[in-house]
Amino acid sequence: MNKLRKIKDTAYKWVFFAATLFGMLALVVLVIDIIYQGMPRLNWDFINNFPSYNPERSGIKAALWGSIWVIVLTAPMALVLGVSTALYLEEYAKKNWFTRLVQTNISNLAGVPSIIYGILGLALFVRAMSLGPSILAGAFTMALLVLPIVVVAAQEAIRAVPQTLRHGAYALGASKWQTIRGIVLPSAAPGILTGMILSLSRAIGETAPLVVVGAFVFVRFVPEDPLDKFTVLPIQIYSWVSQPKQEFHELAASGIIILLVVLLLMNATAVFLRNKYQKRF
Amino acid sequence: MQGSVTSEKKKVSRWPDKLVPAFLFSSSLLTVLTTVGIVLVLLSETLRFFGEVSLLEFLTSTKWTPQFADKNFGILPLLNGTLMITVIASLVAIPIGLGTAIYLSEYAPEKVRKVVKPILEILAGVPTIVYGYFALTFVTPLIRGIIPDTSVYNALSASLVVGIMILPMVASLSEDAMLAVPRSLRNGAYALGATRFEVALRVVVPAALSGIIASFVLALSRAIGETMIVTIAAGALAQVTMNPLESVQTMTAFIVNISLGDVEPGSIESRSIFAVGMTLFVMTLGLNLIAQFISRRYKEEY
Q: Predicted ipTM?
């Protein structure tokens, strides 16, 4: 009887281990498949060419620049709004119904499907504000999309700054804002930055909201100002995946390699920052 | 004289303390306004949509053909597609995710945990467009190799990959809940001679049940709202079917398909994406609120 229970224990250990292995195996297969399909077409021409109906001459230049434009515009908006909201909630807000409402609302927004943000962006920025399917409309949409992530990350970073530091500043006669600017924000900066990078890497990978906003699938120019039409890496990849021809699927895989390398670099930066500046109080 | 100068100086250096809170407050209002904006936009266009299409048809008709000459607006085919994807994805993600969580929290040596956790994080950070590519170019041929008369675009391939996508969420949230179960509970059971499996199944999982169920509900919500995998791999055929080897269209995939086409703003096709978006929003919001309620209401205190 006892032996049977032991056998059962060991058997289930392997069952649970197999479950764990499944996820990792999926990742390995996915990465190998993409490298195998995408590597042959990955060269300088691919990065420096515009998309074309001829797969041999097709590249991601427009999408790469579009993604850079969107991120460069999204980042400051999300950073300012996210950190401001977090500062308000952590440093100023009284514990009342309104604060609870804002807090609950932020966690709910984090669970709203990204395509709903696309619909909001379409109605609000593209149509009501007449920005058209422009980079600016896309960046506004993306800023709202990643805002909840930035707020939560910034809140955690601000909360991790010990009260004693604040009290020290007040004891020296600093005002509340001087304390926040001089003590709280610098101490929380690495955590905020890490959250910011992670949220932007989410924004770089997002496809659906920008499709709804109307990012073009076939763009053969580098955008020059925020009101230009644009496309982004994931949308370019999508347009290749949805072509029936095998050659275009290979292009999609090459595009995915670029996308994943960008994301990997960003995540590595975030991990590096976290390790380098993580303070223990 | 001297006094008035210093007091003026003081006034100048203290102005941020009056203005900053106001600015910060208005920023935090924006998150509330975002929700209000989403609801207003969806509601106003949806109401106009129902000015032209009856709510009864929307909820009961089994035909969804907004782009045909003979237009039908029954949400059931899209719901059918969405729910089929969600159910199959959950059948993949829930058992495997829970198994992973149990392994990591009860069995795994620290070294293994340190390797597996970051890998799960990577899996969670992979853009859905990449999963979509994987579904269409890898999983679909695999399925068609086994069952040759499967459609090129089929619900099975898309939902298996959606399952892989939500797996890290189930695993990591369930593991968090299980890690929060205090050691003393486990030690009590071990002292009575329980095996690790018995401790996991009879002590840890029941104690962490609220967190585990909340993770399931959140994963369901994520599967319902997932867009690119189903747009790429599941097809664009809005039909009521129980056969996962056929093409289906989900609510999200429909929104993408309309967005890619040239539809007049203000036309009924254009409005239909708001009605579908509203349905999607209500469903996911409901699930998210349920998940929050479960994890708050049934949180065990130790």
A: 0.93
